[in-house]
Fold these 4 entries.
Entry 1:
Amino acid sequence: MTSDVVTFAIEDRIAWVHFNRPEKRNAMSPTLNRRMMDVLDELEFRDDVGVLVLTGEGSAWTAGMDLKEYFRETEAEGLKGVRRSQRESYGWWRRLRWYQKPTIAMVNGWCFGGGYGPLFACDLAFAADEATFGLSEINWGILPGGGATKVAVELLPFRKAMYHALLGEPINGKTAAEWGLVNESLPLAQLRDRVVAVCRELLKKNPVALKATKDAVRRVGVMTYDEAEDYLVRAQEAANSYDNDGRREGLRQFIDEKSYKPGLGAYDT
Ligand code: ACO
């Protein structure tokens, strides 16, 4: 199914989502950000989707925010326009960070600035050796906003994060992998096969456990050890109960059999 600036296709339970403005190097315009949220919404709970891959058409993954449509044109609308376009972009990145299914960034080419938002939002990231990454904000006179500085500090050691942000020098996929911005880098011609292989491994796993695990990895980073230990015990218990046959039976007796009312008492075990 096609929606203009974002396209997707589902093959063997893998949803391939494409940034699709190759003529603008897949820069994220307000229109693209709105479409992406719709596409994520449509795919998230489909039974025929077990993993989502985000990639780009043409030579770019994404050249970051659209400097004309996202910055200049929304700034011309005043604060209201600026805040709206921020909500739209940050909104789908947040949605992706906590997505129900595992997500993979398949970085086929240019990845700059605002692109670090969806890069970090994806659980795993694989890049072409030929890809180019950069915090280019400093090169046109702003700081790496929209979470980009946070992404650099989350993923890179302090000195590398600082150098990357202050110098605005591009790095290739190999360096991005060495630094930890992505999991792996490999020649572009091999990138898709490697991502498919990873997807197939993920598709063999229990989906409830996958969601609990990806959330746990993101959550525990800011917790003390004891808080993390407590959170993880409870997250596992929550995952157990999510698949609990008893809970399904309770729903069945209320909705189908109409034999009890949960507000007034318990179902018959
Ligand atoms: N915003 C708006 N338009 C863009 C962007 C962008 N981020 N990136 C590329 N485009 C447009 C160009 O203006 C050009 O449009 P035109 O054909 O109407 O003139 C078209 O896409 C093709 O771009 P070229 O520069 O001709 O493509 P090339 O392959 O030579 O270079 C590159 C690609 C390196 C990505 C270059 O376009 C570039 O530097 N883009 C800006 C990258 C950037 O710094 N992004 C902002 C990061 S900061 C942030 O996101 C907050």
Entry 2:
Amino acid sequence: MSNEPDGANEPPRKKLAGDVGVVVEHYNSRPDVGVVQRLESPILGLKNFNNWVKSVLITRFAHPVLSKGSTSNGYSGPGRGRGGGAGKVLDMGCGKGGDMTKWAKARVREVFAVDIAAISVDQARSRWESMRGPRFDASFAALDCYTEPLSKAFPPAKLAQPFDVVSMQFCMHYAFETVQKARCMLENVSRYLRTGGVFIGTIPNAEQLLEHLDEIPPNAEELSFGNSVYKIRFEERNERPVFGHKYWFYLQDAVENVPEYIVRWDNFVQMAAEYKLYPIYKEEFHQVFEEHQEHPEFGPLMVRMKVVDANGESAMDEDQWEAANIYIAFAFEKR
Ligand code: SAM
């Protein structure tokens, strides 16, 4: 176990230029609010729902009990029924450690948590340190995972045993600024992932974003759409590069106009195959809800996580529900 800084060459906390600098500054400067303040968020229902989706992904694809071939949770679709287990996890773009409890519940043995935002990494470490009950081992490091190899953050001995799961939640799309960044990200995902291991994540749904862009009337002042909860603004209507197709994202009480990039699914799948990663699951968030709401484990979990109340009433208003479906969840297997 280690809670000391990993990697002798931890990058200095200097200000970065360009879009990545805006992203880092944004996430570093967002306060890590306590439980009480978190409960006061105007989009609490949506935040709970996003956490529930991540829990579903983690439980289905990264749960050691399920991995042993058990179908005891009653799930009949694709999942980790084919051997292996989530002993060792890489949480890339871990942020403030929002998934630490999920990893504990999945009973993983060890988590490596990395993020470009050094202050967020410190907060993730504190969150892990303050966790009650039996804790997994954890290592933390600040790293630009889209320009630097993972080996820069962790010494070789720590990476000698491969990961069973790599998780990238709400962060992979920042890599699609350039082909080089996307490739560096995929190299970091795949290099230390064992064969049969799983890569899970959540990203904005490019298809839907581009459909909305197409629907904007030609005389509109701004290339934007959204509702009271979120806003997406493109800079260009016609130029749609495969990498670096930028838009600005605002999400109430979460993201303040940060530059993000379209991830074209087909292009992503094609590239991932070069890193021996093959898709086994992809659904829009609304579909994840439809698929799992009646599930014997994930249905009650939705009540416990306050996505719905005991009567099945949603904690999200219509705008939050619409914003929820900006995203898709995915899982790839390394072969
Ligand atoms: N995964 C966490 C979660 O689900 O709560 C955090 C998600 S937050 C929306 C996006 C995260 O991606 C931020 O913490 C940000 O610093 C991180 N990120 C962006 N670019 C990155 C990069 N180049 N390398 C590592 N992390 C990056």
Entry 3:
Amino acid sequence: MAVFKLDNVEDLYEIGNVLGSGHFGQVREVQERATGTVWAGKFLKLKKGAGSRLGLERKSVEKEVEILQSLQHQNIMGLKDVFESRAEVVLIIELIKGGELFDFIAEKENLTETEAIEFMKQILDGVSYMHQKNIAHFDLKPENIMLSDKHAPNPDIKIIDFGMAHRFIQGEEYKSLGGTPQYIGPEIINYEPLSTAADMWSIGVITYILLSGLSPFQGETDEETLRNIVAMNYEFEPHYFSQTSNMAKDFIQKLLVKDQSQRMTAEECLVHPWIKPLNRTQIAKRNRSSINMKNFKKFNARRKWKMSFNMVSACNRFCRLQLLCKARGPEQQELRDCESDQEDTGTKPASLLRRRLSSSS
Ligand code: ATP
């Protein structure tokens, strides 16, 4: 069982600015008082009681911590320490200063496939490492792929957010409904037994978006997106893929495969000719092909807009509920917690699938 320190985190770290927010708390800059080193602190709210629906089960946080403790890789966010108080757990993690990979790319004028592949390789290195340890991330998406330092000549990819990750035990069947609709594989929607291959599907979707600025299965609604995924309803629209090499399309096609056992593994990806060309002709093709930057920028701007819209709506809902609870009086505290959580998870099917709904047998 993961050991969480009982010290007051504020005695050892000075708490600084908010770096980001998730469904269960905030990530803030924290400075270690003893050394002056700056880290990130992920503050996760714990459930207050068995009946409370707000916050995370301690067991779920333990799972995230145990997984992070077993992963030491250049392309995976590192974990330093864990503190626990009555209401929350604080993970002291590696500070990642470079922001999201997609934002970094969107700032560029153009990008060849060869340059994009340098990032893909690092994502695959990190994923291959965790898969070798029988760990699947289950929430790979642009928001969870960050850069150590965007001003470095060759910035390192850092994969973050292991809140939905799972370590497979031999003979165990694991099912989960967690994930973000655009990026999840058909096996998740169909509630079938899962494997590390689910991450490879997400990498296929991420690569497709990176090259074209289109999301392969995106529908008008989440229901439509999920239907498109199950029906394998995607194509390489020539208008958006005119600058894309055939090797890149082949790479994606070998990942967006319904049968998990037939999908390329991370190790196979690393030796696919798009990633590791076999001859000069293949190298030249990659250099001549580029990502559809105009459309990619549009995709990224829409994505950021949606993220801030979701954040503002969540804040508004929370404020409305607080006012409502104040009017009801302090004895309704527990009820407030349940309701605010219901609001958060009940607005759209996407959030129904959001997180930590899983079963093992
Ligand atoms: P979710 O609701 O998506 O599961 P979460 O509560 O598990 O989120 P994270 O996704 O881990 O939280 O982090 C939320 C945000 O905080 C991230 O999107 C990112 O912007 C920022 N963040 C997370 N980890 C770090 C880090 N190590 N360094 C800098 N910023 C970070």
Entry 4:
Amino acid sequence: MPKASVRMAYAYDRLRAYPPEVAGRIATAIGNALGVRGEEAVLLELGVGTGRIALPLIARGYRYLALDKDPGMLEVFRQKAAGVMRKVRLIEADARAIPLPDESVHGVIVVHLWHLLPDWPKALAEALRVLKPGGVLLEGWDEMEAEEERLIQERWRSLVEAEDVGVVRGLHRKRLEEVEETLKRLGLRPKTKQVVQWREERTLRQALEALEERLYSFTQLVPEEVHERIMPGLWAWAQGEFGDLDRSFTLERSFTLRATRMA
Ligand code: SAM
């Protein structure tokens, strides 16, 4: 296992983690949307990452098929799930070719994956294929807002664009709309609900480090040499703009769930 990939996965895990209360509310919303008794239900998560959605559900008794194509993410997931692994099967595979039979799971969970797949319809078709009749597709997403984070990311973007590299933003939201349209075209009826809103403190340094470590998908298409060239300028700008980089700011966060039941 390459150490760098596990280190990245831990950094991702720290940045995206939910406070315990929030993680519990999300698990409850997913359980309610499923409408199946916990002990019996089998859930599959596509692009499970380090398990921030999965672990509270596993703790509640669901059997969990944790699929991801990145062994570093699955390794961190495995370390975090120590003690409850008997309920879990790790599947290192591509979401566009799920190695499971048709109609074999009660719920398919997808959080922050569609926008990473240019050919997302293949993964959506696979998700629908493995759901049992009456099973539920559960798509979730985070939103976060803070003026400081916005200013830092805007500056990052202008530095990248000055290097003649285009940055694509807003893909996540657009992809969610495309998936919703597809589900409706198939005669299904997705229902969307904001599950929880909360506030978090983050330091300016943490916001810069997330860009430095390329934890957001919009940073990952920037060539390595461009990334290395612009980052010192970003840190210097932030130092001049904000002064103390260990100052914290408030991040408004929320989690939304869209549930679509198969006929
Ligand atoms: N769902 C997790 C969460 O919300 O914390 C992880 C989200 S992370 C942005 C996307 C995850 O999808 C990563 O763990 C990545 O390895 C995985 N992934 C990306 N493309 C994939 C594919 N084609 N098949 C399976 N997993 C994939």
